[in-house]
Design brief:
Elements (H helix, E strand, L loop, with lengths): L4 E10 L2 E11 L4 E5 L6 H9 L6 E6 L2 E2 L5 H6 L2 E4 L11 H8 L7 H11 L1 H5 L10 H13 L5 E5 L7 H16 L4 E5 L2 H7 L2 E6 L2 E7 H6 L1 H7 L3
Parallel strand pairs: 3-8, 3-9, 6-7, 7-8
Antiparallel strand pairs: 1-2, 1-4, 4-5, 9-10
Helix pairs in contact: 3-6
Bound molecules: adenosine-5'-triphosphate.
Adenosine-5'-triphosphate binds next to β2 and α1.
Length: about 240
C-alpha cells in the first residue's frame, strides 16, 4: 500500500543552523500519527518543510507516492496536502463563512456543500457563521482553522499544536474533532507538545529530540515507555 506521506532523510534549517538532521517518518492511509517533543526540538520546522514553507536541504518528501520535495507550497496544497499552522491563523476581520470560502480556493466545485459538511462537523461555526472570525474564542478559532484547511478536501492533514493555549475543556473538544476526522479516514500528522493527549488518540508516535527522531513506535507502547513517561508525560 502506498503511504499517504513519507519523509526520508530530511535535512532543513535556518541560515547556518541545521534544525533537522535527517528525519524519517511515515504516515499510512487512514492513520493518525503523533509527533511529540520539547520546545525547540524541530517539530514546527519539520511540518513547514513538509508543506514547503522551508526548503529541504537533503532528503525527500513523498505525498501518495509522488515526490514533492521541491514543489511550491501551493502545488502541494493542490496535490492534497493541507496544513493548519501553529497559532490559529484565521482572517480576523472576515466572517467565519468567508474564512471557509477562502479555504476552498483550490477547488471550484460544490463549495457550498463542503461548507455545509464543515458546519455538520463543527456546529458552533454554523451558529457564528456571520460573525468576524476575530471575535471567536481561541478554541473556536482553532476549529475554524481546521475547517478552513478541510475545505480543500485534503488527502493528508498536518496539524501544528492545535491544543496550544487552550483551556483543558477546549483541548478535549479539539482532540474529539481530530478523532472524528480520523474516523472519516483522513491521514493526519499531529504535532503536539501535549504528548499525553496526542499519543492517547494516535496510532503511531514519533519523539523528536534536537532535530532527530529519538524514539518511535505504536502510540500505546510510547505511552508506557519509561523514557517517554519521564521526559514528556510528567510522570
Ligand atoms: P516549538 O514547540 O517551540 O514550536 P519546535 O519543536 O516546533 O518548538 P522549531 O520551532 O522547529 O521547534 O525549532 C527548531 C530549532 O530551530 C530550534 O533550535 C529553534 O531555535 C530554531 N529555529 C526555529 N525557527 C528559527 C528561525 N526562524 N531562525 C533561526 N532558528 C530558528
Amino acid at each position: 500500500m502506498t503511504a499517504a506521506l513519507t519523509v526520508s532523510g530530511l535535512v532543513a534549517g535556518y541560515g547556518r543552523i541545521e534544525a533537522l538532521h535527517g528525519i524519517d517518518i511515515e504516515l499510512q492511509p487512514g492513520r493518525l500519527v503523533a509527533l511529540v517533543g520539547a520546545n525547540g526540538a524541530g517539530k514546527t520546522t519539520l511540518l513547514r518543510t513538509i508543506s514547503g514553507l522551508i526548503r529541504a536541504r537533503a532528503g525527500q518528501v513523498e505525498l501518495l507516492g509522488d515526490d514533492i520535495t521541491h514543489a511550491a507550497p501551493e502545488k502541494r496544497v493542490r496535490a492534497g496536502l493541507a496544513q493548519v499552522l501553529e497559532g490559529r491563523q484565521v482572517f480576523g476581520p472576515l466572517s467565519v463563512q468567508d474564512n471557509l470560502r477562502l479555504g476552498a480556493y483550490t477547488q471550484r466545485t460544490d463549495v457550498a456543500g463542503q461548507i455545509d459538511a464543515m458546519y455538520a462537523l463543527f456546529p458552533v461555526l454554523k451558529e457564528k457563521r456571520l460573525l468576524a472570525a476575530g471575535t471567536l474564542s481561541g478554541g473556536q478559532q482553532q476549529m475554524l482553522a481546521m475547517a478552513r484547511a478541510l475545505m480543500s478536501r485534503p488527502k493528508v492533514l498536518l496539524l501544528d499544536e492545535p491544543s496550544m493555549g487552550l483551556a483543558p475543556l477546549l483541548v478535549r473538544e479539539v482532540f474529539n474533532v481530530i478523532e472524528r476526522l480520523k474516523a472519516q479516514g483522513i491521514p493526519i500528522l499531529l504535532v503536539e507538545q501535549n504528548a499525553h493527549a496526542a499519543l492517547s488518540i494516535a496510532d503511531h508516535g514519533y519523539v523528536l529530540e534536537t532535530g532527530r527522531i529519538a524514539l518511535s513506535g505504536p502510540a500505546r507502547a510510547l505511552l508506557q515507555d519509561e523514557r517517554v513517561k519521564a521526559a514528556y508525560l510528567g510522570l
